């Protein structure tokens, strides 16, 4: 989508009754879609490590988790640099899912953690995971204050559900979820309000989401409204020649993990909405950029998290029934090996081509809460 698509059309006249009907229809549609998303994630089973290792996207999921670890570590370090030693560290994990980032919050020594998600079952799994985590069960003094509650952050004000609605947060994290709010302006605006209104001045809102520019680029290249590979597939359910700023709907399937409707996020609109709530863009990077900038410095973490697949595999190249070892999926690794002087000792960490294609659909963003003052009418002014 181009910046020119942000221009609004002239409003049409409606009667009060028609306007009320349209609003009710919109609200019902938003609630219906939220229910679909919640139902999808509630039905996802926590399959355990053994089952996950057999997945076609095992390494890609680890790679995405490594990306999150890198950026969360960066911004928790920035938070600590802005606060005195021993100060509270309060985090909102918005759309926390099953608690995949709990270990990251433990490593960051957060003192107050708020976990919320639209899916009640996922939230219960998150709470169970928290209660059994070794990092906190071994050291009760490090155990943070924690809150768990189910809510739709695109339609409900989260602040009213906090134990202390006046709480000041140092970091808000929304991983792989903000794009669901772009069903409508009202939902996206609500999501930003939830991210920003309790965030202390100078601190950060971070997250990950699909890159709409990349998705549209692939749609154009495929010359089809349906495209992808063996592990991911996108099917557009809107006009791709002139997609709307809100409600640009597509169905996204990711092997055994995701199969539900999502929405494109037009980033210039995303950035303008953020400014409305006092959030200034600090950085925006695609996943491959984050990898290029951090792979050397964070190589040990890459290996620890098994974020890359060893190629050729330790026990022979294409053995057993391992579906990931399709030769054509590793031609880039073979080419790298041919360029090495010690070809007989060649082994490299990589992703299959199809996993890389799926992983590079995403981007990372970070915003900083601006200084707030108020005008004569009591309206916030950000600087």
Describe what is shown at a glance:
The protein has helices spanning 16-43, 48-53, 58-81, 102-107, 120-131, 134-137, 185-196, 212-222, 267-276, 287-294, 299-304, 331-338, 353-359, and strands at residues 90-94, 112-117, 145-150, 169-175, 199-210, 226-228, 232-236, 249-254, 258-263, 279-286, 309-311, 348-350, 362-369, 372-374, 380-382.
Strand content: 15-25%
Structure annotation, total helices: 13
Low-confidence stretches: 1-25, 316-324
SSE string: HHHEHEHHEEHEHEEEEHEHHEHEHEEE
CATH architectural category of the domain at 48-210 and 264-295 and 362-382? 3-Layer(aba) Sandwich
- The CATH superfamily of the domain at 48-210 and 264-295 and 362-382 turns out to be Vaccinia Virus protein VP39
Radius of gyration over C-alpha positions, nearest whole angstrom: 22 Å
- The CATH topology name of the domain at 48-210 and 264-295 and 362-382 reads Rossmann fold
Class by SSE composition:
alpha/beta
Helix content: 25-40%
Distance between the termini: 29 Å
In the sheet with the most strands, the strands line up as 3-2-1-4-5-13-10
CATH level 1 class label of the domain at 48-210 and 264-295 and 362-382: Alpha Beta
Strand runs, count: 15
| Overall average pLDDT | 85
Q: What is the overall shape?
A: globular
Oligomeric assembly:
single chain
Main sheet specs: 7 strands, mixed
Catalytic activity: a 5'-end (5'-triphosphoguanosine)-ribonucleoside in mRNA + S-adenosyl-L-methionine = a 5'-end (N(7)-methyl 5'-triphosphoguanosine)-ribonucleoside in mRNA + S-adenosyl-L-homocysteine
GO molecular function, one term: mRNA 5'-cap (guanine-N7-)-methyltransferase activity
Protein name: mRNA cap guanine-N(7) methyltransferase
Organism: Anopheles gambiae (African malaria mosquito)
């Amino acid at each position: 989508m181009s910046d020119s698509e942000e221009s609004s059309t002239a409003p049409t006249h409606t009667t009060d009754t028609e306007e009320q009907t349209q609003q009710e229809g919109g609200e019902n549609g938003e609630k219906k879609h939220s229910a679909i998303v919640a139902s999808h994630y509630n039905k996802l089973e926590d399959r355990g490590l053994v089952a996950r290792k057999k997945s076609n996207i095992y390494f890609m999921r680890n790679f995405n988790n490594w990306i999150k670890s890198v950026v969360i570590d960066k911004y928790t370090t920035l938070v600590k640099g802005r606060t005195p030693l021993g100060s509270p560290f309060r985090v909102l994990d918005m759309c926390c899912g099953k608690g995949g980032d709990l270990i990251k919050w433990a490593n960051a020594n957060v003192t107050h953690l708020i976990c919320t998600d639209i899916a009640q079952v996922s939230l219960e799994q998150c709470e169970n995971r928290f209660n059994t985590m070794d990092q906190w069960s071994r050291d009760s003094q490090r155990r943070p204050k924690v809150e768990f509650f189910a809510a739709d952050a695109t339609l409900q004000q989260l602040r009213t559900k906090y134990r202390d609605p006046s709480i000041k947060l140092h970091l808000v994290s929304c991983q792989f979820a903000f794009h669901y709010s772009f069903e409508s302006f009202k939902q996206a605006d609500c999501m930003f309000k939830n991210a920003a209104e309790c965030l202390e001045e100078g601190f950060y809102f971070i997250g990950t989401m699909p890159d709409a520019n990349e998705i549209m680029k692939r749609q154009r290249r495929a010359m089809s409204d349906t495209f992808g590979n063996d592990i991911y597939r996108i099917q557009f359910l809107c006009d791709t020649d002139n997609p709307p700023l809100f409600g640009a709907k597509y169905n996204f399937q990711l092997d055994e993990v995701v199969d539900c409707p999502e929405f494109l996020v037009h980033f210039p609109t995303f950035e303008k909405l953020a400014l409305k709530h006092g959030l200034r863009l600090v950085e925006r990077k695609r996943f491959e950029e984050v990898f290029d900038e951090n792979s050397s410095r964070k190589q040990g973490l890459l290996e620890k998290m098994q974020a890359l697949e060893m190629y050729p595999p330790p026990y022979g190249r294409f053995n057993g029934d391992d579906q990931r070892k399709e030769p054509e999926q590793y031609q880039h690794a073979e080419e790298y090996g041919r360029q090495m002087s010690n070809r007989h000792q060649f082994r490299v960490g990589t992703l299959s081509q199809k996993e890389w294609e799926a992983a590079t659909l995403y981007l990372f963003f970070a915003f900083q809460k601006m200084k707030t003052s108020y005008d004569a009418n009591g309206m916030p002014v950000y600087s």
